[in-house]
Design a protein that fits this description.
The complex is a heterodimer. Chain A is of the alpha+beta class. Chain A has four helices and six strands, in the order E-E-H-H-H-E-E-H-E-E. In chain A, helix 1 packs antiparallel against helix 2. Chain B is of the alpha/beta class. Classes of the chains: A alpha+beta, B alpha/beta.
Chain lengths: 147, 114
């Protein structure tokens, strides 16, 4: 039985370090407001930070000059809760659910930068959906927990 | 984000990070972090127990400094709170198998100087 559903909440930011921090604070406030478990809050924060970092680093000029739009939704019933974060940007096409994240290096010497963000997103979200809408990426990260 | 340090001996330094190690946080400490881990044969404990969030850019900074130190004959180890979000992030990404990670300062000191 559905016991609580909140209206979607929206935020627009620019893809830069300062506004990524603003977005994290926005998400943290929503997490507290909706009484999300700490683990769920952290996993969403990881998805948010890594997807925005990816937009900044690899999205290209259109990603940096056009707004990134964030949506947060949350629902809970008697047995579980789910929080959904959608990140929409105007950068180059990129699906965070694919390709498969690179394999982990075995030694410090062979460790290379890159790919960590993808690993972190894919292991933090319970489900990632992606589609391209016109010239925008739309990635949706879902985090679930039992109540 | 803040960074501080304490020299525990001539060769062993403890670098303490606190706050969010996201893009903004990592950028703010990058230069000082590299400077504090510089020098040949330096042994460093990086204390992450006061870090509230660790993003991939923060992990890259840890790896980068650990590699540079290793190439100069030194060693870097991590001190974390067992089971917290930072420790889990390091385990999820496999960094704990690249850089020794400890929840006990005495073990961290022993490993750093071995």
């Amino acid at each position: 039985m559905l016991t609580a559903e909140r209206a979607a909440t929206r935020l627009e930011i620019k893809a830069n370090a300062e506004e990524i921090r603003t977005a994290s604070n926005w998400l943290a406030a929503l997490g507290i407001q909706n009484e999300l478990p700490d683990d769920a809050k952290h996993r969403l924060d990881v998805c948010l930070n890594e997807s925005l970092a990816n937009v900044m680093a690899h999205g290209g000029p259109s990603a940096l000059t056009n707004p990134v739009v964030l949506h947060f939704r949350y629902r809970r019933d008697d047995s579980h809760g789910v929080a959904v974060l959608t990140v929409s940007d105007a950068g180059r096409a990129f699906d965070p659910a694919h390709p498969a994240a690179p394999s982990r290096p075995h030694t410090l010497t062979e460790a290379e930068p890159g790919g960590l963000g993808l690993i972190m997103m894919q292991r933090s979200a319970d489900h990632i959906l992606y589609h391209r809408m016109g010239n925008r990426n739309v990635a949706t990260f879902s985090v679930r927990w039992t109540t | 984000m803040n960074i501080d340090y304490e020299d525990l001996s001539d060769e062993l330094r403890c670098v303490t990070l606190s706050g969010r190690m996201d893009i903004a946080g990592s950028d703010s400490i990058a230069t000082k972090f590299a400077a504090l881990t510089a020098g040949s044969n330096r042994r460093v404990i990086v204390d992450l127990t006061a870090v509230s969030f660790l993003a991939s850019i923060g992990i890259r900074s840890l790896i980068s400094n650990a590699k540079a130190l290793q190439q100069r004959g030194g060693k870097l180890v991590l001190l974390v709170n067992g089971g917290d979000a930072v420790a889990k992030t390091l385990e999820t990404t496999g960094v704990d198998s690249l850089i020794p990670m400890f929840i006990d300062i005495a073990l961290a000191k022993s490993a750093a100087t071995s």
